[in-house]
Give the backbone structure.
Amino acid sequence: MPDFFQGSPETQSGRVHRRRLLNIPAEVVLSSSQSFAVRLVDISEGGAGIVAPAAAPSGLRFAMRFQLPQRVGFSAASFELQSRVVHSILSRDSAGFKIGVQFVGLQPSDVDVLRNYVAS
Protein backbone atom coordinates (compact mmCIF):
# COMPACT_ATOMS: atom_id res chain seq x y z
CA MET A 1 0.00 0.00 0.00
CA PRO A 2 1.51 3.39 -0.93
CA ASP A 3 2.28 5.86 1.83
CA PHE A 4 -0.02 8.56 0.48
CA PHE A 5 -3.68 8.99 -0.40
CA GLN A 6 -4.50 9.01 -4.06
CA GLY A 7 -7.52 9.80 -6.13
CA SER A 8 -10.15 12.44 -6.36
CA PRO A 9 -11.16 14.63 -3.41
CA GLU A 10 -14.19 12.39 -2.89
CA THR A 11 -11.91 9.40 -2.23
CA GLN A 12 -9.87 11.41 0.25
CA SER A 13 -12.66 12.26 2.71
CA GLY A 14 -13.28 15.62 1.05
CA ARG A 15 -9.60 16.61 0.84
CA VAL A 16 -8.60 18.88 -2.01
CA HIS A 17 -4.94 17.75 -2.23
CA ARG A 18 -3.23 14.38 -2.08
CA ARG A 19 -1.29 13.85 1.18
CA ARG A 20 1.88 11.98 2.05
CA LEU A 21 2.24 10.29 5.41
CA LEU A 22 5.24 11.32 7.51
CA ASN A 23 6.51 11.07 11.05
CA ILE A 24 9.01 13.90 11.50
CA PRO A 25 9.64 16.57 14.13
CA ALA A 26 8.32 20.08 13.59
CA GLU A 27 8.04 23.25 15.63
CA VAL A 28 4.98 25.43 16.15
CA VAL A 29 5.94 29.07 16.74
CA LEU A 30 3.21 31.14 18.39
CA SER A 31 5.39 34.18 19.14
CA SER A 32 9.04 35.15 19.41
CA SER A 33 9.06 33.74 22.95
CA GLN A 34 6.62 30.83 22.66
CA SER A 35 7.10 27.67 20.61
CA PHE A 36 6.72 23.94 21.13
CA ALA A 37 7.63 20.65 19.48
CA VAL A 38 5.06 18.66 17.49
CA ARG A 39 5.11 15.67 15.12
CA LEU A 40 4.28 16.26 11.47
CA VAL A 41 2.30 13.17 10.44
CA ASP A 42 1.06 14.06 6.96
CA ILE A 43 1.50 16.84 4.43
CA SER A 44 0.07 18.17 1.18
CA GLU A 45 0.56 21.28 -0.89
CA GLY A 46 -2.29 22.90 1.04
CA GLY A 47 -1.81 21.82 4.64
CA ALA A 48 -0.65 19.23 7.12
CA GLY A 49 -1.60 17.03 10.01
CA ILE A 50 0.35 17.39 13.23
CA VAL A 51 0.22 15.74 16.64
CA ALA A 52 0.64 18.10 19.58
CA PRO A 53 0.54 17.72 23.36
CA ALA A 54 -2.36 20.19 23.67
CA ALA A 55 -5.51 21.08 21.73
CA ALA A 56 -5.53 24.13 19.48
CA PRO A 57 -8.56 26.30 18.81
CA SER A 58 -9.92 26.45 15.25
CA GLY A 59 -8.64 29.52 13.46
CA LEU A 60 -5.43 29.82 15.51
CA ARG A 61 -2.60 31.12 13.31
CA PHE A 62 1.07 30.29 13.82
CA ALA A 63 4.31 29.60 11.96
CA MET A 64 5.35 25.98 11.53
CA ARG A 65 8.99 25.04 10.99
CA PHE A 66 10.04 21.67 9.60
CA GLN A 67 12.43 19.97 7.23
CA LEU A 68 11.19 17.49 4.68
CA PRO A 69 13.62 14.57 4.47
CA GLN A 70 15.57 13.70 1.36
CA ARG A 71 13.94 11.12 -0.90
CA VAL A 72 14.83 9.60 -4.23
CA GLY A 73 14.46 12.47 -6.70
CA PHE A 74 13.94 15.04 -3.93
CA SER A 75 16.50 17.01 -1.93
CA ALA A 76 15.83 17.85 1.72
CA ALA A 77 13.97 21.16 2.08
CA SER A 78 13.40 23.42 5.10
CA PHE A 79 10.22 25.43 5.60
CA GLU A 80 8.70 28.03 7.88
CA LEU A 81 5.07 28.31 6.78
CA GLN A 82 2.21 30.37 8.12
CA SER A 83 -0.56 27.99 9.16
CA ARG A 84 -4.14 28.06 10.44
CA VAL A 85 -5.84 25.40 12.57
CA VAL A 86 -8.81 23.78 10.83
CA HIS A 87 -9.61 21.14 13.46
CA SER A 88 -8.17 19.62 16.63
CA ILE A 89 -9.23 16.30 18.16
CA LEU A 90 -7.90 14.07 20.92
CA SER A 91 -6.31 10.97 19.41
CA ARG A 92 -5.51 7.99 21.63
CA ASP A 93 -3.67 6.34 18.74
CA SER A 94 -1.40 9.35 18.35
CA ALA A 95 -0.91 9.99 22.09
CA GLY A 96 -1.89 13.63 21.74
CA PHE A 97 -4.13 15.94 19.76
CA LYS A 98 -4.35 15.44 16.00
CA ILE A 99 -4.49 18.93 14.52
CA GLY A 100 -5.32 19.67 10.90
CA VAL A 101 -3.72 22.84 9.57
CA GLN A 102 -4.08 24.78 6.36
CA PHE A 103 -1.07 26.63 4.98
CA VAL A 104 -1.73 30.35 4.51
CA GLY A 105 -0.12 32.68 1.95
CA LEU A 106 2.19 30.13 0.36
CA GLN A 107 4.64 31.32 -2.24
CA PRO A 108 4.30 29.55 -5.62
CA SER A 109 7.80 28.09 -5.15
CA ASP A 110 6.73 26.51 -1.83
CA VAL A 111 3.63 25.02 -3.47
CA ASP A 112 5.81 23.51 -6.21
CA VAL A 113 8.23 21.95 -3.71
CA LEU A 114 5.41 20.51 -1.59
CA ARG A 115 3.58 19.17 -4.65
CA ASN A 116 6.77 17.52 -5.91
CA TYR A 117 7.48 16.01 -2.49
CA VAL A 118 4.02 14.50 -2.19
CA ALA A 119 4.29 13.09 -5.72
CA SER A 120 7.82 11.67 -5.24
Residues 27 and 48 are 13 Å apart (CA to CA). The longest strand covers residues 77-91. Residues 1-12 have pLDDT under 50 and may be disordered. The radius of gyration is 14 Å.
